Amino acid sequence: IMAPQSSQLDSETLAWIALASAQRVSPKLWLQALEKYQLSTVDLGSNASTLPNEVKQLTNNISPPLIDAAINWLQASDNRHIVPLSSPHYPESLKQLDSPPLVLFATGNKAHLQKPQIAIVGSRRASLQGKRTANDIAYGLSSSGVVVTSGLAMGIDSAAHQGALSGSTGTIAVMGTGPEKVYPAKNNKLYEAINNDGGVTVTEFFPGQGPKPWHFPRRNRIIAALSLGTLVVEAKIKSGTLITANLAADMGREVFAVPGNIANAYAEGCHWLIQQGAKLVTNISDILDEVGV
Q1: In angstroms, how far is CA 95 from the centroid of its own chain?
Q2: Cα angle vertex 205, ends 200, 208, to 5°?
Q3: Phi and psi angles of residue 34, each rounded to the nearest 5 degrees, phi first
Q4: 3-state SS class at 263
Q5: Is residue 98 within 8 Å of residue 226, measured between CB atoms?
Q6: Per-residue pLDDT reduced to its tens digit, 125-141
Q7: What's this model's pTM, rounded to 2 decimal places?
């Protein structure tokens, strides 16, 4: 591998980082190549001349600058972790994705990734009432031993993270940027609080990568896959929030929705989900009963 060997990194983790650095190659293609040719990740990551041509076309996309960025990021703090697909810390639920992230960049308490989680998502432009509801439910879940997972956006996401931090279990923020790039920048304090106060921020994007429109649907699939169920607090019908809820349903996960005022456009998405069979939620026992936590 074309990167300096690091004391914290074994050759297998380095190999997974190399594969993930080939950003034009979907994880699914790598996993298929590993299986088809009975190769190890280290074989693939080494980019050796002996590899089959079909595989060489993939390995040509490996990016040494991204590998270096990952290693430099990791070595800057003991609170940072790179969790490859083969690690015992890698969440089993993510492996159910068609194209699971090959590595996760995590800051904070990576043990949370293994714990039972409920996602709380909703509009960035949430009402005061919506934010209060998200905060209260997140606090209740966290106090009952459930990790609250969300996307570090403004509005419902932020309220959910804050509520969970004041409970006893903590929160996971899945980011649509590299692990050190906070988006939106307004959430910098919240990001620091999550990393240093018993939570964890996690992303599949490499250090240095900023927010791109296509990053957020990818982030949403991770939120949906990590969680036992997804609770929508406020959302419009056409929104990223509803995409997350649909992804959760497609993966056989529970979908929950908080009803709202029929005059509020941000209640429309929740009411539509309830009509489609999502469970109506008025308090946390509605969620805990359903997922058996």
Answers
A1: 13
A2: 100
A3: -60, -45
A4: coil
A5: no
A6: 999 999 999 999 999 99
A7: 0.94
